[in-house]
Design a protein that fits this description.
By secondary structure, the chain is an alpha+beta fold. It has helices spanning 2-18, 24-28, 30-39, 50-64, 116-129, 188-202, 259-268, 271-286; strands spanning 41-43, 70-76, 79-84, 91-96, 102-109, 139-145, 157-161, 165-170, 173-181, 210-216, 219-225, 234-239, 245-250, 294-297, 304-308, 314-319, 325-331. The protein folds into 2 domains: 1-181, no CATH class; 183-331, no CATH class. The chain is globular and about 60 Å long.
């Protein structure tokens, strides 16, 4: 179960990477940062306990590979937000004053500031995907978090992003590399299989607006994305060699969650509802018969259900309040996704 959840977490992180969102560390610290904006107390570095400052400096050095001058801070309810002299957009360290521990931290760097080995591995991985391209990078984000709820706690995540390329490292290990392509260049077999799968899954027509080829950890996949509208979007993860669909996400029917909605999901959407919705989709899209599978609701996410059967691929689905599937993911029983 833990290894499967780690794979799912990796997929989620890779999705952020491929979508070229903002700095990764801003995602990692989003919860405490929102507190800060409500009732922040501006402080100076002189107000900060010497031990906390030392912890912040050590953490920044770990992320940046060099000393980073810290010269501003704010505090909210015993949580300190400490920023580099270059500005808040360049990074921050979040520390719990009571425990003295770093909750999260992040820094923005240039590609040139990375160590030589990471730069070489990044370029080699991208060239392995597409030898004809010359890659340039405009942003490197390095972050670490310690929330106690993720398999990524304590791991330094590095995201290297360019106009048409992204690379991810966990600590010093390269875990994923991706190259952006014109959708028309994607193998017709892959495109057609994705279009059929979306039609079977959601009844919608799938027009690919963005395509990324991704390799890492034994996987070789296409991440295919429709145009985003105010009502939603659709994404598909397909094997680059086989065209097999490994995941579909349809945000048009996704349920937006909050505490009240979660209560309704727990009350109104049961395991049998998830099975009723997932069984035909798994058969039509992936050729998987869920007969004999065990279904279990995720303990933290009430609309997430996991179907498992010994020796068989694992199926994960998200179910909306109206009992429709908004997402389905398949994890192979062995080997990678390709």
């Amino acid at each position: 179960m833990k290894s499967y959840k780690k794979m799912i977490a990796a997929l989620a992180v890779s999705s952020m990477m491929l979508a070229s969102m903002g700095p990764v560390w801003t995602v990692a610290v989003a919860a405490p940062a929102s507190k800060e904006t409500k009732e922040q107390k501006e402080k100076t570095i002189a107000d900060l306990d010497a031990n906390l400052l030392k912890t912040a400096q050590t953490t920044m050095r770990q992320l940046a590979g060099k000393d980073i001058e810290l010269d501003s801070a704010s505090e909210y309810d015993g949580v300190w937000f400490i920023y580099p002299k270059e500005g808040k957009e360049k990074g921050q360290v979040v520390i719990d004053e009571k425990t003295g521990k770093v909750t999260s931290a992040g820094v923005e760097l240039s590609f040139e500031e990375l160590n030589a080995d990471m730069k070489k591995h990044a370029l080699d991985a991208l060239t392995n995907i597409e030898a004809s391209k010359k890659f340039t990078f405009d942003r490197v984000s390095r972050s670490i978090s310690n929330f106690g709820k993720s398999s990524y706690d304590g791991i330094v995540l590095t995201f290297i992003n360019g106009k048409d390329a992204s690379v991810q490292f966990d600590n010093e290990k390269l875990t994923a590399a991706a190259v952006k392509y014109d959708p028309s260049t994607v193998d017709a077999k892959v495109r057609q299989a994705a279009e059929r799968a979306v039609k079977d899954f959601s009844g919608r027509t799938f027009q690919i607006a963005e395509a990324w080829r991704r390799q890492g950890n034994g996987d070789d996949t296409w991440s295919l994305q429709s145009a985003s509208t105010s009502k939603g979007s659709i994404s598909v993860l397909s094997g680059s060699q086989t065209g097999k669909v490994w995941s579909i996400h349809n945000s048009y029917v996704m349920t937006s969650r909050n505490a009240e909605v979660d209560k309704k999901l727990l009350k109104d959407v049961k395991e049998q509802d998830a099975l009723k919705a997932a069984d035909p989709a798994a058969k039509e899209v992936c050729g998987i018969d869920l007969k004999g599978y065990t279904v279990k609701r995720d303990k933290d996410i009430p609309n997430l259900f996991l179907f498992t059967k010994k020796g068989q691929p694992t199926v994960e689905v998200e179910v909306s309040l109206n009992k429709k599937l908004s997402m389905m993911r398949i994890a192979p029983a062995k080997g990678g996704m390709n």
